[in-house]
């Protein structure tokens, strides 16, 4: 199985028209036979787009006309004095010197991020890259590839994904019993404070504007709080996915991911959160699942997506009664458990079968 991971590195100082390259890449997808190569285009760019037997994956086919398509590029790697890959590649990674360099199509230089060395150490390699714009800034997407076979699992790691408010609940099941378990969530107070701050400042700013008072400073402060919040919610999923992938790897677990996103969204609204409050509690949850899946594939961790019941008794399979405080109670066997733990008990039961 081939697993891939990607990292985007910004290269603000690049010296070519990336928009144009992206437009040509879009055309190349659509009309491979046509070979649209403007005369002033560096030949290497054309080679990258129309090379015969080009075994690069072009990512996904552009859905729209004029969608900005990233230009695929081969990569030359230099490590311990030896060269791997296409000698004429537009991207050179000199791992000995720690420098990556664009040439032929565009010129730019940047330090090689730690991420590249980590992936190579894990048995991967940077086999291709793409050039494009990310949020308007020129960037190279480095794509690491690794051939890996999933191992034979020795334990089970169910992961029940909810909103951040209720967190990501996991358990390690070994030898038919739960040996450890936990609930992971970001710092909810930190999130709440930043969110309230940005809302308060925005309201105040709006009021002052209406009575003709300049309050740009308040607006800047509000945006600052907001971007700090989103930055935090962007980094947390990455951190958590790594943590869970490492745990699975350490215990040779099979991961069972239960994503109850719609249910989580409904719960938040039922609990009285406004839509925008609920939105914050779900920000990055989907991304967490995506990063987790990528990392599990990369490390050869077997995994599956599976819905595990959270309202049905794992002992007697009858619908449970919901008590205040997310407690569930079975009227038949008397089991009383936090709702987020019911899926874990189901995973335990399914393993015993
Ligand atoms: Zn029961």
What does this molecule look like?
- This protein is α+β, with helices and mostly antiparallel strands and 353 residues long.
- It has 2 domains: 146 residues, no CATH class; 153 residues, Nucleotidyltransferase, domain 5 (2-Layer Sandwich), CATH 3.30.420.
- Helices cover 37% and strands 27% of the residues.
- The strands form 3 sheets. Strands 1, 2, 3, 4, 5, 6, 7 and 8 form an 8-stranded mixed beta sheet that branches. A 5-stranded mixed beta sheet has the order 11-10-9-12-13, sandwiched between helices. The protein has a 3-stranded antiparallel beta sheet with strand order 14-15-16, with no helix packed on it.
- The site of zinc ion has 8 residues, from loops.
- The site of zinc ion (ZN) has 8 residues, from loops.
Give a concise summary:
With 353 residues, the protein is α+β, with helices and mostly antiparallel strands. The chain has helices at residues 18-30, 43-50, 114-121, 188-210, 216-250, 261-270, 275-282, 285-299, 342-352; strands at 2-10, 71-79, 82-84, 91-94, 99-102, 108-111, 125-134, 137-147, 155-161, 168-174, 177-184, 253-259, 303-305, 321-323, 327-329, 336-338.
Largest sheet: 8 strands, mixed
Roughly how many Å is the radius of gyration? 25 Å
CATH class of the largest domain: Alpha Beta
Q: Do you know the CATH architecture of the largest domain?
A: 2-Layer Sandwich
Report the CATH topology name of the largest domain. Answer: Nucleotidyltransferase, domain 5
Give the integer mean of the pLDDT values: 91
Shape: globular
Termini gap: 29 Å
Query: Which ligands appear in the coordinates?
Result: zinc ion
Count of extended strands? 16
Poorly predicted sequence stretches spanning 5 or more consecutive residues:
none
* Structural class computed from helices and strand pairing: alpha+beta
Strand residue percentage = 25-35%
Element string (H = helix, E = strand):
EHHEEEEEHEEEEEHHEHHHEEEEH
Helix share bin: 25-40%
How many distinct folded domains? 2
| Number of separate helices | 9
